[in-house]
Write a structure and sequence with these properties.
226 residues; 5-stranded antiparallel beta sheet; 8 helices; 5 strands; globular; disordered C terminus
Length: 226
């Protein structure tokens, strides 16, 4: 599929997004993502008030992770949470080319907060057997990277200034696994945060590949302390 064909598909879905949202209701957000520019992936959005996002905003942390490790199928009826505390039922339908590679997505986020409040009285009205995915929707790529960095650091139980070399490698491995280095200039930002040079990060990433291939790299906090 040529880039122009992908663009036409995304533009067509963008025109349909308002219709999708109108059919579902004003409590439902429909988002069209173009993954050719992750930092500004939202090209169309209807009822953006649900998550507080708008056209030109970046892909969220979960989406960045999916770009790093593309799913084999669409994600349907999983639970997410906004920064303001809204509980959403979400579905992500991925746009794929003839090779199966993902180049965009259609995401539907339905605010079920009020329904969940009534669940105590109307349990048959809302299903609660979905696996919950804790997710906050970021507006900018800086927010995404900051969140990924905070999560990686929290897994060590230390601040950036307290990390030894192995712990820095562990943090960088976590960031790489979550797709952080797909973000432009992320190497510079992470280097500044960890107070190391960007060349050190390149070396660490190469070392991580070697450790992963030999099974030596710890993947959890518990393993890193063995």
């Amino acid at each position: 599929m040529l880039p122009t064909e992908k663009k036409r598909v995304i533009e067509f879905l963008g025109r349909l997004s308002d219709g999708f949202a109108s059919a579902i209701g004003d409590h439902a957000e429909v988002v069209i993502h173009d993954f050719s520019d992750p930092e500004h992936s939202i090209v169309a959005i209807a009822n953006g008030n649900v998550t507080g996002r708008s056209v030109g905003d970046s892909i969220d942390a979960l989406g960045m992770q999916l770009l790093k490790r593309p799913p084999v199928a669409d994600l349907m009826n999983y639970q997410t949470k906004t920064k303001s505390g809204k509980i959403l039922r979400s579905s992500s339908i991925f746009l794929r080319d003839e090779k199966g590679e993902i180049f965009g997505s259609v995401c539907i986020n339905v605010d079920i907060s009020d329904a969940l409040k009534a669940q105590e009285f109307l349990r048959s009205f809302v299903r609660s057997d979905e696996i919950a995915i804790q997710e906050e929707f970021e507006n900018t790529v800086e927010d995404v990277l900051n969140r990924l960095m905070q999560n990686a650091l929290s897994s060590t139980g230390k601040s950036a200034s307290e990390l030894n070399r192995d712990e820095k490698i562990f943090v960088i491995a976590q960031l790489d696994a979550k797709g952080a280095f797909l973000i432009r200039y992320s190497i510079d930002r992470v280097a500044e945060h960890l107070n190391i040079s960007k060349y050190s990060i390149y070396n660490y990433l190469e070392e991580i590949k070697q450790r992963q291939s030999s099974g030596e790299l710890a993947t959890t906090k518990a393993e890193s302390k063995k």
